[in-house]
Amino acid sequence: MAKSNKGYKIAIFGAGDEKLDKSVYKIAENVGQEIASRGHILITGAAKGISRYAAIGAKKKGGTVIGISPTSNDKEEKDFNVDFKNSDIIIHTGFGYKGRNVVSVRTSDGIIVVNGKFGTLSEVANAEGEQKPIVVLKNSGGCAEMMEDIFKKINPNYELFATANSSKEALDLIEKMIKKIKK
Fold first, then answer.
1. Which of 69, 180, 63, 68 is nearest to 132 (CA)?
2. Which of 27, 34, 103, 134 is most solvent-facing, going by the fewest CB within 10 Å?
3. CA angle 34, 35, 38 (to 5 degrees)
4. How far is CA 169 from the centre of its chain?
5. N- to C-terminal Cα separation, the chain
6. Which residues partner with 68 through β-bridges?
7. What is the pLDDT of residue 54?
8. What is the CA radius of gyration of the chain?
9. 67-84: buried (b, 16+ CB within 10 Å) or exposed (e) per residue?
10. Residue 90, beta-bridge partner list
11. Are 116 and 11 in contact (CB under 8 A)?
């Protein structure tokens, strides 16, 4: 397990879909690797899809993965179509997906969005409401492609929002924003 020298807990949010283009999962895996290689802790929704591939990436680099699950216990893994295999710690919220999203946001220091659907929009709305740093990876599809326009129209002055073209850039931006709010 990697030691966290900075202690940042960075969440990745995106579609729990296993039918996306493989290139999207590679983006998620790269984000997980970048988070772990910098000594941060990855927070996921303990789901399949983007969460799972980010966790796989983090584990490849010896990182720590905390899965915030919608389930009440391990037995509900199949009922909720989640994946506990790549998490070091599973936190069972028992709150379903919507409640889990709030816990995931509040647990994290900042979030990175890859792809996403309506659940991801919910997570981003919660993160904005909690004044959390948000970085969206461009060209990852889904709601991530609309996020910049959404912020321009609804909250153009939100200083803790940015877009990135790569995992490295996403981590550079999220670290900068987290440092800013932790001062």
1. 180
2. 103
3. 85
4. 15
5. 28
6. 91
7. 98
8. 15
9. bbbbbeeeeebeebebbb
10. 67
11. no
Strands of the sheet containing 64-69, edge to edge, are 89-92, 64-69, 41-44, 9-14, 110-114, 134-137, 161-164
The 3-state secondary structure of the chain reads CCCCCCCCEEEEEECCCCCCCHHHHHHHHHHHHHHHHCCCEEEECCECCHHHHHHHHHHHCCCEEEEEECCCCHHHCCCCCECCCCCCEEEECCCHHHHHHHHHHHHCCEEEEECCCHHHHHHHHHHHHCCCCEEEECCCCHHHHCHHHHHHHHCCCCCCEEEECCHHHHHHHHHHHHHHHHC
Cβ neighbours of residue 145 under 8 Å, at least 6 residues apart?
138, 139
Mind listing the pLDDT tens digit for each residue in 56-67? 999 999 999 999
Residues 6 or more apart whose Cβ sits within 8 Å of residue 61: 2, 32, 33, 36, 37
- How large a percentage of the chain has pLDDT more than 90? 91
pLDDT per position as a tens digit, 101-134? 999 999 999 999 999 999 999 999 999 999 999 9
Q: What is the pTM of this model?
A: 0.94
